[in-house]
């Protein structure tokens, strides 16, 4: 573990070891949780631990600790967690007697709130025990340190009956929460008892509580017994119910003293009835009071009738008005859906916002979440998309409409409001496809292509073609053009693309532009390619906007026009096109036909990085490496960005990693680690790396193993010269003259 220095061991239990450590690069303290991996099916367990760490990195909740790193070392899964000064919850429990009943309930609410948040991501926590939490003593802040995706060997006292039988129910974690809270409150009630003793007392004896909180303790005891029902159907159904019940107990306990004071005050201020010596006067007064009471009762009845008539009238008017509003909102929503499917995200967002301004519905919310995610520019957009999706999800799961089912698939595809799970997404898409919902065919095909199941993807697209999906023609044609299928028919590919174009698919038109540009028709036909590209722009295809914008900016195949090029690129970028966003950043970074502006370029690169642009991530590394645009140099952060980009085969970022090891920037100077990065960048086709390897081999900085340095240097110079590198051509002349 070169990156971290172990300071001390905090816990060692069945769920792994917890260490306090320090990050060597930035000297920040972290927790390291290490778990030994099973020898069998190791790859599966590594993936589960990755999901566990990823979920902790996504959750933003005051009672859930966040993860910042994950790696494998010596057959152990290691997760780095944010540091919080505190002690393990198991050590804190014995000191609970120092706190009041209200404070104890408030701490219990924190525990349940953390589990409720994990549940909202579609995860049933499998490891609820005192070892799953850490507590800061000065303000009683409790944080969950495990997302519960990987099941550990936790004490049986915390396992539900169905878990002991190796089964699980959606509310299994409610039982575990109940057991944990019994132990927690048990220390306050029976501090001398062990775990089993506390369980016995809480089940069979009345709680030993102060008189002022006797009723609240009894209510709490009944609640916890309800969480420990052996039959899951008779148990509380989820952690959210438990949280709400605890909240009510907390409110009752907090206001208990105030209620007592109010009762005493009322009794003291009540008027004393004067004694009547004259019986006749007393009877008259009594009759008068009865008449007065009767009149008041009659007035009350009349008032209730009047209010009821007014309310019914208002309700009828409101119902009619609401119907009109819903009708108008739904029309906006339908327009937004069509625009979204056409990838016109900016226009779709405006229409969807109009619908939400009239009435807030789950379908509108999830569509806004998807639009915001597609056009994300920063962390705030990602957080908003997650929040909207989580808010809409409970209702979507109850609906049986194709759009609702498809939306759930989109959530699991991209990890919006839930943990990313593409197999689960495919299940939702299959359900929507049975209802002939065309976008689900396209999304399912995309996932299958990423899984390299090209034949299955082709079958899905063929089903969509039967439903007259223009995009499906383009998708199937490209599978043939890219030789993804065993039988590649170029002629049929052209026919399918033209058929899709005839149905109004901008993507199919852009596909035809690609077809004629890349000589699939036998010879490159620039005029035909540009004709189809312009048609694709008219039909709103974002990739066509990107290509035409780039061509106008560079003056390639079309007349050079900076303003027109920027206009096309900005439209595509605004609607979520990652490459267009990067191209704008690159234009301002290099000063390509526009005035150089590093600060403006940085904004575009950050937005493109959020849209998963590998090149943009590499450029962010350049900003922190060299301090462009007023950014403070941070070689450690630059190394991190370069590494992320190089993992996706970005040759520029890979070359920069080689330079960092050569100069010792952000890392320790190491020529042995430098060579693989330069070699990989050269193999990816980067001429600068080829020249650098040739020069270093010629100078003896790098020594050839299989042959002499001169031969290897000439090899790399020739490779770079073929790429047009002038320095390499001069070096070849120099070496061949010797």
UniProtKB/TrEMBL annotation:
<dbReference type="GO" id="GO:0004672">
    <property type="term" value="F:protein kinase activity"/>
</dbReference>
<dbReference type="GO" id="GO:0005524">
    <property type="term" value="F:ATP binding"/>
</dbReference>
<keyword id="KW-0812">Transmembrane</keyword>
<dbReference type="InterPro" id="IPR011990">
    <property type="entry name" value="TPR-like_helical_dom_sf"/>
</dbReference>
<protein>
    <recommendedName>
        <fullName>Protein kinase domain-containing protein</fullName>
    </recommendedName>
</protein>
<keyword id="KW-0802">TPR repeat</keyword>
<dbReference type="InterPro" id="IPR019734">
    <property type="entry name" value="TPR_rpt"/>
</dbReference>
<dbReference type="InterPro" id="IPR052945">
    <property type="entry name" value="Mitotic_Regulator"/>
</dbReference>
<dbReference type="InterPro" id="IPR011009">
    <property type="entry name" value="Kinase-like_dom_sf"/>
</dbReference>
<keyword id="KW-0472">Membrane</keyword>
<feature type="domain" description="Protein kinase">
    <location>
        <begin position="4"/>
        <end position="250"/>
    </location>
</feature>
<dbReference type="Pfam" id="PF00069">
    <property type="entry name" value="Pkinase"/>
</dbReference>
<dbReference type="InterPro" id="IPR006597">
    <property type="entry name" value="Sel1-like"/>
</dbReference>
<feature type="transmembrane region" description="Helical">
    <location>
        <begin position="298"/>
        <end position="317"/>
    </location>
</feature>
<dbReference type="Pfam" id="PF08238">
    <property type="entry name" value="Sel1"/>
</dbReference>
<dbReference type="InterPro" id="IPR000719">
    <property type="entry name" value="Prot_kinase_dom"/>
</dbReference>
<keyword id="KW-1133">Transmembrane helix</keyword>
<feature type="repeat" description="TPR">
    <location>
        <begin position="438"/>
        <end position="471"/>
    </location>
</feature>
